[in-house]
Fold this protein.
Amino acid sequence: MKTFGLAIIVAALATPLAAQWVKYPTPGTPRTADGKPNLTAPVPRTRDGKVDLSGMWQRISPTYRRNIARDLKPEEIQPWARELVQQRMEDLGKGQMSVRCLPWGPAYPTSERLFKVVQTPGLILMLDEGLVYRQIFMDGRPLETDPNPSWMGYSIGRWEGDTLVVESAGFNGETWLDSAGHPHTEALRMTERYRRRDFGHMDIDVTFTDAAVYARPIKVSLSAEVRPDTEPIEAVCNENAAKSLEHWTGKASDEKNSGVKVPPEVSASYAGTYVEQDLWGPPPHPRTIQVTVSNGLLFAELSNRGKVELFPQTQTRFAGFFDWSITFLPNSDGVTKDLLEMHISGNYRYTKTK
Amino acid sequence: MKTTLAVVLVTAGLLLVVRPAVAHHAFSAEFDANKPVKLTGTVTKVEWTNPHAWFYMDVADATGKVTNWAFELGGPNGLIREGWTRNSMKIGEIVTVEGSQAKDGSPIANTQIVTLKSTGQRLFAASSRGAQQP
């Protein structure tokens, strides 16, 4: 039976009985004949016919989570805000809420964090593993006219057909809208639209309006998927945050100033299209990296992220690839067929196709 | 992270796409890929904490001098969802660690591969396709 085989594999890897709630059947989950959660079952509804958003959700936000302003032209962002973003990135992003162990506030809805929705008729709760909660009041109350500024803001919601529309205001000015460091003021207004398409899938649209910083409203689209039969796991960031931070040194631009020069024929030998072999990150797979040379500079374009300049650290290793490094692996004849995408968690190999 | 183990676990139904609980931070903020390390030693401590789990290991150099090294892992939530626990690595165990040393030269490294000397088993390996430790 499949579960017997599962138990053997689990026993071989880890204590099989630990943390049982991490994989425990959630009551009320629609299932297929073999007992697996049916993620394409119809949208669940409450007794009064409203869509029920309750459940454990994984946000999927590859396009915008690092940079919610990526669709804006530079001139649509105040110069001081653009400078602040540069400064924050140059400082290795140390000021991020996630590094300082502070609530992310308006950055949660566009992130890739797990969240649990608990829906009651007059109130919807959104719970985060970092022990942060949001209350979305569904009782018709208006937003406060003079709110005490807060990290998480104040939220009210209403149904437009099967879409939950949430309006939020009353944020303090302390948080970053994304990990790039886009700022906002206390005047920020956030509108979210949640549409659960079926049991397992939800579309989310978030609009940020803050005219003192951004010339037009910023629109962000993302989605979420149910994570069935599991629960949030508490994650108290502050318990050991200082440990890593002690050893963050230097500036982001250091890697541009290595002083290493790579001869043009060596750079040219790295050009080509490389296809992902060791999978990392969300789909679609395989990702590809297209390496090109232009004016003596090496560029790399990642299939789902965009194109960046690479900065040599050695003759074969280049920094600047979206916070990672790339190491090319030339063979003894100087022919390069493989590269490694270097992460904190290890190296992920790509192989040249052409 | 290699995919062969993932095939086994997908079949077993353990597949979970794991995303980091904290915002990604750059490898190069903390570690130097120019300073690869491969060290074998005895585990002295495990800190199963957020935002990153750590473990410590006594490593003897050629002269016999012992240095206690610190190794940074991913966050415990991601490790727990992969099936690991705070007891997966035992004090006194002999392990081999491959990683990159801290930029500031301290006896600290990140953890790319951790192998139990006795069995060759990889500890804390991301098991599923798409698992996303930074």
